[in-house]
């Protein structure tokens, strides 16, 4: 993870260099290069390599999903959304650059993500690139990440949100971008339709796992340990997995999701699948 993350960070630094207009690029770089585990781009690269591709084929897509992830965090932290002041241990983008620039920085990262895939991808047939762009657009739009965010905002303060509704929120809001990461990697690497769909199922379970663990950490760790405001979902009146299931049942659910995710990798070469197995285990056991 450290080696791949370093390569991703280097590519992101090049993609969003400090150039005119300076203020918007400063704001983009502030959040994009603020750290983070780079789970999504690493999943993209690992999926590409699993189906026979190479890192350069996946790197533009890996950068793209991290740009979109960063955009979602910038917008999620805004006063009109989750209204948060802390992200990755630093003041959120709008606290440093103001709300208008924060919105525009997110918009610019979203646009740049698609440019990265369309212009920077090398060694991949155009048909695969077009397919990947279509997948990404669908998974982050009104049927994907945006759908989950809308459902999440709409559910605040509601007492009748059940497990089915909560899973819908996070299969869209959180898991959809992990799904995009893995599916894009598999497409760029030349995976068959069957391989792509198996990896899609792996990513959905891993994405939901990510959120269950996130909810558990939100009520068991401090803001300092997390690098973001702890307990904010409970304050906002949001339904979480621990609130609905309790801590222990949530941990059992996380274990089940990890098993389901890894079960989707059974038909692949175990050595090539090992990075994805390890990533799923990392998501399950992370402490921040």
TrEMBL record:
<dbReference type="GO" id="GO:0046872">
    <property type="term" value="F:metal ion binding"/>
</dbReference>
<keyword id="KW-0125">Carotenoid biosynthesis</keyword>
<keyword id="KW-0479">Metal-binding</keyword>
<dbReference type="Pfam" id="PF00348">
    <property type="entry name" value="polyprenyl_synt"/>
</dbReference>
<dbReference type="InterPro" id="IPR008949">
    <property type="entry name" value="Isoprenoid_synthase_dom_sf"/>
</dbReference>
<keyword id="KW-0460">Magnesium</keyword>
<comment type="pathway">
    <text>Isoprenoid biosynthesis; geranyl diphosphate biosynthesis; geranyl diphosphate from dimethylallyl diphosphate and isopentenyl diphosphate: step 1/1.</text>
</comment>
<dbReference type="GO" id="GO:0005737">
    <property type="term" value="C:cytoplasm"/>
</dbReference>
<dbReference type="GO" id="GO:0016117">
    <property type="term" value="P:carotenoid biosynthetic process"/>
</dbReference>
<dbReference type="InterPro" id="IPR053378">
    <property type="entry name" value="Prenyl_diphosphate_synthase"/>
</dbReference>
<keyword id="KW-0808">Transferase</keyword>
<dbReference type="InterPro" id="IPR033749">
    <property type="entry name" value="Polyprenyl_synt_CS"/>
</dbReference>
<comment type="pathway">
    <text>Isoprenoid biosynthesis; geranylgeranyl diphosphate biosynthesis; geranylgeranyl diphosphate from farnesyl diphosphate and isopentenyl diphosphate: step 1/1.</text>
</comment>
<dbReference type="InterPro" id="IPR000092">
    <property type="entry name" value="Polyprenyl_synt"/>
</dbReference>
<comment type="similarity">
    <text>Belongs to the FPP/GGPP synthase family.</text>
</comment>
<dbReference type="GO" id="GO:0004311">
    <property type="term" value="F:geranylgeranyl diphosphate synthase activity"/>
</dbReference>
<keyword id="KW-0414">Isoprene biosynthesis</keyword>
<protein>
    <recommendedName>
        <fullName>Geranylgeranyl pyrophosphate synthase, chloroplastic-like</fullName>
    </recommendedName>
</protein>
């Amino acid at each position: 993870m450290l080696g791949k993350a370093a390569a991703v960070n280097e590519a992101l630094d090049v993609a969003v260099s400090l150039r005119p207009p300076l203020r918007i690029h400063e704001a983009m770089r502030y959040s994009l290069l603020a750290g983070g585990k780079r789970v999504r781009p690493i999943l993209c690269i690992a999926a590409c390599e699993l189906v026979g591709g190479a890192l350069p084929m996946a790197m533009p897509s890996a950068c793209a999903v991290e740009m979109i992830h960063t955009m979602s965090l910038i917008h999620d932290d805004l006063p009109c959304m989750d209204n948060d002041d802390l992200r990755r241990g630093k003041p959120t983008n709008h606290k440093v650059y103001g709300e208008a620039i924060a919105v525009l920085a997110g918009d610019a990262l979203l646009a740049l993500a698609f440019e990265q895939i369309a212009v920077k991808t090398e060694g991949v047939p155009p048909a695969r690139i077009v397919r990947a762009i279509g997948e990404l657009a669908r998974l982050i739009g009104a049927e994907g990440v945006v759908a989950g965010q809308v459902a999440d905002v709409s559910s605040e303060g509601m007492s009748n949100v059940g497990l089915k509704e909560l899973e819908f929120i996070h299969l869209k809001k959180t898991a959809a971008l992990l799904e995009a990461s893995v599916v894009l990697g598999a497409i760029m690497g030349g995976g068959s339709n069957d391989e792509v769909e198996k990896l899609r199922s792996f990513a959905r379970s891993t994405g939901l796992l990510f959120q269950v663990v996130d909810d558990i950490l939100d009520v068991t760790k401090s803001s300092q340990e997390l690098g973001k405001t702890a307990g904010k979902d409970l304050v906002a009146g949001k339904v979480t997995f621990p609130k609905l299931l309790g801590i222990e049942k949530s941990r059992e659910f996380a274990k089940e999701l990890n098993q389901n995710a890894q079960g989707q990798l059974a038909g692949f070469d175990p050595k090539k699948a090992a990075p994805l197995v390890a990533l799923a285990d990392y998501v399950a056991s992370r402490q921040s």
